[in-house]
Design a protein that fits this description.
This protein is mostly helical. The protein has a single domain, classed as Orthogonal Bundle (Lysozyme), CATH 1.10.530.10. The protein has seven helices and two strands, in the order ααββααααα. The protein has a two-stranded antiparallel sheet. It is globular and about 40 Å long. The two termini are about 20 Å apart.
């Protein structure tokens, strides 16, 4: 699962756009290596709305952290586990939320089986950067993400 979490961060661009630690847990949506936009990942989800230009339209987003979890999704996660709304948006909690999202989209078993193409497709509704996403944002090539998964120690099922 750790290799798949790394793959999400590569796809979302947070590995390169986070702090000097390079882990992306503190990256706000729209952060780039040339223009860092960071938060301190030890308080609640920042819930800061950033306006992005996607296909010529202004689109609001509250996504942040290593997996670019938006505020409504974070609140859904907290409600699901009956956690307080001020639960810290720490790296550990970001990991737990991402793993929960993967499971909620029936992709955990796919990841464990090494069926990464299928897992990417199953999670394309969560992460707009995944190849099969129809969100209209920039998507990554499957080959790039499979290489990231392998580089992180994951084993891809071969037919």
């Amino acid at each position: 699962m750790n290799a798949f979490l790394f793959t999400i961060a590569v796809s979302e661009g947070t590995i390169a756009a986070g702090s000097s630690e390079g882990n992306g847990y503190d990256a706000m949506v729209g952060s780039t290596p040339d223009k860092l936009s960071l938060f301190v990942p030890n308080g609640p989800h920042p819930n800061v709305t950033v306006m992005l230009t996607i296909n010529g339209k202004q689109v609001p987003s509250t996504a942040c952290g290593r997996y670019q979890i938006n505020h409504p999704t974070w609140m859904w996660y907290l409600r699901t586990y009956n956690l307080p709304v001020d639960t810290p948006f720490t790296p550990e909690n970001q990991d737990h939320c991402a793993i929960w999202l993967i499971g909620a989209h029936n992709a955990a078993a796919l990841v464990e089986a090494g069926a990464i193409d299928a897992a990417l497709a199953a999670c394309a509704g969560i992460w707009a950067s995944f190849p099969a996403s129809t969100a209209g944002q920039h998507t990554q090539q499957a080959s790039t993400l499979l290489a990231a998964y392998s580089a992180a120690g994951g084993t891809v099922e071969t037919a």
